[in-house]
Amino acid sequence: MSDPNLLMQRQMQEMQDGHERLRKADISPLYLPWTQRVVNPFPLASSGAAWGDQGQPWAANILAFYCTLRVATTNNATNFWTIILIDNAGSTLASFSTSAIAANTWTRFSDTSVTQTLTTNPVLSIVATATLSPGAIFIAPAVALLRTGN
Predict the structure, then answer these.
(1) Which end of the chain is more exposed for a tag (fewer CB within 10 A), N or C?
(2) 8-54 pLDDT, tens digit each
(3) 121 Cβ contact list (under 8 Å, min separation 6)
(4) Model-level pTM?
């Protein structure tokens, strides 16, 4: 036979946990600053390198990856950039391709179907990779985060 006090304590803990999840869900997303490794515009010679990093000071879930991009000069279906958001293990979390945008035009991209990394992930990075020979790219990123712990 089970202890009624123990059962009530478990039910209270479940209610408190549910309340905490709801409280965190009401919090607006956070946007942390990026540390650039390469100054804009990101040149073709830097293809495959990290553009910049964002430190993660606490456990968080990624809600969305946003990027405003502008490719100078050549950009088309065969000469384009792929922008990839990765975690510290090198896993791809989200990505964009500039193949469908016109050169010399600022364009906003968003990816809300981000693959979640571990909440203990200490850093996010952006890698820009060229296909053939696009022009240099200007990158203005943002990642919406929901803080889930300390």
Answers:
(1) N
(2) 788 888 777 766 665 555 667 888 888 888 878 888 888 899 999 99
(3) 56, 87, 88, 89
(4) 0.78
Closest to 69 in 3D by CA, of 3, 142, 17, 149: 142
pLDDT at 19: 64
b/e for 132-144, b at 16 or more Cβ within 10 A?
eebbbbebebbbb
Query: What pLDDT is recorded for position 98?
Result: 96
CATH of 30-147, one of 3.40.50.620, 3.40.640.10, 2.60.120.260, 1.10.357.10: 2.60.120.260
Residues 6+ apart with CB under 8 A from 66: 108, 109, 110, 111, 141, 142, 143, 144
Residue spans of alpha helices (H) in the chain: 4-25
Beta strands of 44-111 (E only): which ranges?
49-55, 60-71, 80-87, 92-97, 107-111
Q: Is 107 exposed, middle or buried (0-12, 13-18, 19+ CB in 10 A)?
A: middle
Cis, bond preceding 122 (omega within 30 deg of 0): no
Report the distance separating Cα 66 and Cα 141, nearest Å: 6
